[in-house]
Write a structure and sequence with these properties.
Blueprint: H1 11-17, E1 27-34, E2 40-42, E3 50-53, H2 54-66, E4 71-77, H3 96-107, E5 112-117, E6 131-132, E7 135-136, H4 138-155, E8 159-162, H5 169-179, E9 185-192, H6 199-205, H7 226-237, E10 241-245, H8 251-260, E11 266-270, H9 272-283, H10 289-303, E12 307-310, H11 313-318
Helix pairs in contact: 3-4, 4-5, 8-10
């Protein structure tokens, strides 16, 4: 009889035999940034998460740096009056993300800044690209994504992260950055599924589609191999890092991606719905919050993620 219980008889022994360790350096913390001053708006569907104006975001980052988190991902939030059919506010030279990048780099030069590149937060229709006959026009969207990425890179972003799921978006951005002589890296949202877990994010970013859904360009979650094919295409087009999103319901895809693309840093996004599900369940007393988020993050790391985007990053770092 093989005996396994001796590996578990005390916390010290369990720690000794733990195969997976999460480090604070594994985390990328997401921020929602909005216009104005002295703005810190609670997001009702995401307890403990806020929309910040640039000045308040910098104040919040003081705590972030104290607990050791040195990577952030930025999402822009603008009012409806500033949106148009093309999402022009997202790629204008004075766009909110570029101004935020400059402010962060001036105050926290060692922080790695990732910027989301997508039109959904900036278009009046809430879709991720230009529309033609009530569907996204893939190829006419590519130059706009490339321009947005260029503006972010010009402002000092370390990584641009195209999330629109347009075919050829990585190639278009890579060509534009290379043409301009910029060394900014690309984190590709390679395997991004059409998921119900994004609901709270759309509340936070004000990016819900005004009609229809995003199933014609985000991946069908019933597929098994498309995610790997999407990753392979992004790598071929010039991606530096790759991503699987969401995380907790796609641990199989994380593992397969980590095995097939072992030479590329792999990021997993524990998305808004996954965060809110755990947060609200803990608030109802269904489970211990620290234990449940630690277990969920460990599962993501165990499946093969090198980095984790999570709204729980600060809570983990405080432990």
């Amino acid at each position: 009889m093989k005996r396994f219980r001796p590996y578990r008889i005390s916390q010290e022994i369990r720690d000794q035999y733990a195969d997976v360790q999460i480090e604070i350096s594994d985390f990328i913390y997401p921020y929602f940034v909005t216009e104005g001053e002295n703005v810190k708006q609670a997001i009702p569907s995401m307890s403990g998460i806020y929309r910040f104006s640039i000045d308040e975001l910098l104040r919040d980052m003081e705590e972030l740096t104290v607990v050791g988190i040195d990577k952030v991902l930025l999402f822009g939030v603008i009012d409806d009056a500033s949106k148009d059919e093309r999402g022009s506010a997202g790629f204008s030279p004075e766009n909110i993300i570029s101004r935020t990048v400059k402010a962060i780099k001036a105050r926290f030069p060692q922080t790695l800044v990732f910027t989301d590149v997508c039109l959904c937060e900036y278009t009046s229709h809430g879709h991720c690209g230009l529309l033609h006959n009530h569907d996204v026009d893939n190829d006419s969207t590519l130059p706009l994504l490339a321009e947005m990425a260029y503006q972010h890179a010009l402002a000092g972003a370390d990584f641009v992260a195209p999330s629109a799921m347009m075919d050829g978006q990585v190639e278009a951005i890579r060509q534009r950055l290379d043409q301009e002589g910029l060394s900014t890296k690309i984190l590709a949202y390679s395997a991004k599924y059409a998921s119900a877990f994004y609901g709270p994010f759309r509340d936070a970013a004000g990016s819900a589609p005004s009609f229809g859904d995003r199933k014609t360009y985000q991946m069908d979650f019933r597929t098994k191999n498309q995610g790997l094919e999407e990753i392979a295409a992004d790598v071929e087009e010039g991606a530096d890092w790759i991503m699987v999103k969401p995380a907790m319901s796609y641990l199989d895809m994380l593992y397969r991606a980590s095995q097939q693309f072992a030479d590329y840093p792999l990021v997993a996004y524990q998305v808004s719905g996954e965060y809110s599900m755990l947060k609200n369940g803990a608030a109802q007393g269904f489970f211990n919050e620290e234990r449940i988020f630690f277990e969920s993050l460990t599962a993501i790391k165990r499946a093969g993620a090198n980095y984790i985007i999570s709204y729980y990053a600060k809570d983990f770092a405080r432990l």
